[in-house]
Amino acid sequence: MISAFSALLLFGCLAGSGPIGDAPEFSLVNVSGGTLKSSDFAGKVVIVDFWATWCKPCIEEIPKYNKLRENLGDKGLEILGITLESGKLDEVRPEVAKLKIRYPVVMGDDKVGEDFGGLVGFPTTFVVGKDWKIYKRYLGSVPNKTEKIEQDVAELLKR
């Protein structure tokens, strides 16, 4: 049985209770070319998803994130996939195409993972507000995760 404290550590804070910290600044190689910087997402609510090409739960979430971006992208939502432990760029690029990811994917490094507070597994997903503060963290593929994230995003888009 999970204690309330353990649940808080695993699943982060509620979006309504305020930010749990600042999202870090970064500049990372975009799988489709060039670089993406945290400043490129200014004024948007951003779902930052740390994933790996070999992670089955990560892969299962991709169509849901595609749909979420399709539904809310014009309202100010962006999704960013940060891939770690997935090989070199020339190995990741075909995987991104094969998985039909329709949002930006960048090549992560240990520093960006540490800057987000450290990662203990995949997927690890952060909901970041327009103010570039982290409002929620999801560790793993928890039940109804996408629906919960959609509720978080709806609340943050109102702010």
Q: Structural class of the helix and strand makeup?
A: alpha/beta
- Count of helix runs: 5
Mean pLDDT: 89
Lateral arrangement of strands in the main beta sheet: 1-8-7-4-5-6
- Alpha carbon gyration radius: 15 Å
Q: How far apart, in Å, are the first and last alpha carbons?
A: 35 Å
Per the principal axes of the C-alpha atoms, what is the gross shape?
A: globular
Number of strands: 8
Helix content: 25-40%
Biggest sheet features: 6 strands, mixed
Strand content: 15-25%
Low-confidence stretches: 1-16
Q: Summarize the helix and strand pattern as letters.
A: HEEEEHEHEHEEH
How would you explain this protein's 3D organization?
The chain is an alpha/beta fold. Helices cover 35% and strands 23% of the residues. The chain is built from five helices and eight strands; from the N terminus they run αββββαβαβαββα. It has helices spanning 4-11, 56-72, 89-98, 110-115, 145-158, and strands at residues 21-22, 27-29, 35-37, 45-51, 77-83, 105-107, 124-128, 133-139. A six-stranded mixed sheet has the order 1-8-7-4-5-6. The longest helix has 17 residues, at 56-72. The radius of gyration is 15 Å and the shape is globular.
Layout of helices and strands:
Blueprint: H1 4-11, E1 21-22, E2 27-29, E3 35-37, E4 45-51, H2 56-72, E5 77-83, H3 89-98, E6 105-107, H4 110-115, E7 124-128, E8 133-139, H5 145-158
Parallel strand pairs: 4-5, 5-6
Antiparallel strand pairs: 1-8, 2-3, 4-7, 7-8
